[in-house]
Amino acid sequence: MFRWRIAVMVCVAIAISYLDRQTLPVAVKAISADIPLSNQQFSYLQSAFLLAYAFMYAGGGKLADVMGTRRGFTVIMVFWSMACLTHGFARNFAMLAVSRFLLGMGEGGGFPAATRAVAEWFPAEERATAMGIINAGTAVGGVVAPPLIAGILAFASWRWIFFFTGALGLLWTIWWRASYGPPKQKDATSEPTFVVHLRWLDLLRIRESWGLVLAKFLSDAAWYFYLFWLPKYLYDARGFDIKAVGKLAWIPYAAAGIGCLLGGSFSSYLVRKNFSLGTARKLALGISAAMMPAILLVPQVQVSWALAIFSLAYFGQQSWSTLVMVLPTDLFPRQVVGAVAGLVGFGGAMGGIVFGQLVGYLLDHGFGYGVVFTLAGSLHVIAFLVILLTVPVVRQVAIRSTDKFEAAI
User: Fold this and answer.
1) Sign of CA dihedral 300, 302, 303, 304
2) Which pLDDT score, from 0 to 100, does residue 95 have?
3) How far is the C-alpha of 213 from the C-alpha of 230, rounded, in Å?
4) How far apart are CA 93 and CA 42, in angstroms?
5) For position 218, what pLDDT does the model report?
6) What is the C-alpha separation between 402 and 409, in angstroms, rounded?
7) Assuming Cys at both sites, which of 34, 82, 85, 351 could form a disulfide with 221, CB separation 3.0 to 4.6 Å?
């Protein structure tokens, strides 16, 4: 059916997004030969990305709501692809930081637009599966990045990595413009339509909204550490070179892709078996969160076991992420899904900034990776407790013409 083709198309966009954001972490050793980077400077580069990403995640949700999914995603993809290209012209740390900031601005709108596409095309019983397919793009990008970047570096300068990946995004935009359209009335998910004008502050007055934002802040703090620091950890603590990273660093991302698909599919399966929506979402979330403390063992084991534990953590994280991203479509009407998803993503990116800066400081002041992994391994469990407290019942809130929220009956 056409809606599943939409899911695959958006999955490819998210794959390009994660390929683009992995270029710097995977190629950091080659880049450092031209532009020396300390651990703290490396964390500043990631924070530049995440700061812009955080604000544009919120703004991108609004953009998708105002412009519509087709036009909004077009603008978002073109911007971040051009920003990726600019990395290839960087001559110093400041230029890298500006390029990283611009990339974050563009990529921040990707997931809100994806969430809106799911709300447009998929009924509740299929949304978790669709979001799982889309979120699997994070794993595809992560799997492709290490061997692709290693291959490019074998024949060309690190600058060509950014030229190549930026061009991929522009090609996807042509495909998107030629293929995507809003659903016809008979295909659209049935929801009442209201013209509403809500500020983000209005949305944050709802317990479920700020609960999701806080949960995402905690869990994405750990996720962005894994995402941005895994290659550097393998370089610094395990003695890997670029060839070894290219051969092995993709394995956790493959596990992440399986987590995306199984987490969403398991929740959808429970819904089809007549479990309540809340039980279906929370059971899958709880199982995902329970996997994450295993990361505490990484510094204590051999590298093969460390990669296996990373793989388990990536599996659990992306199963978790799929379900957290689908909750706004369960809880809120389509007219504000993009804005809510944007706020949730803003919280996640801010968590990545705070924890990333802490990681850079700890490593440069001799605390070592053991302390960092101990902190990271606890965050998903705390986030799950936040969801249990702030989302006691998973049911959609309705927006009346007076812009007041109340539980749908």
Assistant:
1) negative
2) 93
3) 25
4) 9
5) 95
6) 18
7) 351
Dihedral of alpha carbons 95, 220, 361, 153, sign: negative
The reported pLDDT for the residue numbered 385 is 95
Asked whether the beta carbons of 344 and 53 are under 8 A apart, the reply is no
Question: Exposed, middle or buried, 152 (CB in 10 Å: 0-12/13-18/19+)?
Answer: buried
The length of the chain in residues reads 409
Give CA separation, 41 vs 48, 113, 249, 358, in Å: 10, 31, 22, 12
Alpha-carbon span 312 to 296, nearest angstrom: 12
Please report, as a single letter, which amino acid is at residue 355.
Answer: F
Instruction: Report, as ranges of residue numbers, the positions in the chain whose pLDDT lies below 70.
Output: 61, 184-200, 338, 395-409
Which residue's entry shows tokens 């971040």? 80
Q: What is the pLDDT of residue 409?
A: 27
pLDDT score, position 197: 54
Three-state secondary structure of the chain: CHHHHHHHHHHHHHHHHHHHHHHHHHHHHHHHHHCCCCHHHHHHHHHHHHHHHHHHHHHHHHHHHHHCHHHHHHHHHHHHHHHHHHHHHCCCHHHHHHHHHHHHHHHCCHHHHHHHHHHHHCCHHHHHHHHHHHHHHHHHHHHHHHHHHHHHHHHCCCHHHHHHHHHHHHHHHHHHHHHCCCCCCCCCCCCCCCCCCCCHHHHHCCHHHHHHHHHHHHHHHHHHHHHHHHHHHHHHCCCCCHHHHHHHCCHHHHHHHHHHHHHHHHHHHHHHCCCCHHHHHHHHHHHHHHCHHHHHHHHHCCHHHHHHHHHHHHHHHHHHHHHHHHHHHHHCCHHHHHHHHHHHHHHHHHHHHHHHHHHHHHHHCCCCHHHHHHHHCCHHHHHHHHHHHHCCCCCCEEECCCCCEEECC
Contact indicator for 37, 148 with CB cutoff of 8 Å: no
Question: Sign of the C-alpha dihedral, residues 325, 326, 327, 332?
Answer: positive
What integer pLDDT is reported at residue 200 of this predicted model? 63
Whole-number Å distance between alpha carbons of 154 and 117: 39
Q: Of the candidates 135, 186, 133, 116, which has an alpha carbon nearest to the alpha carbon of residue 332?
A: 116
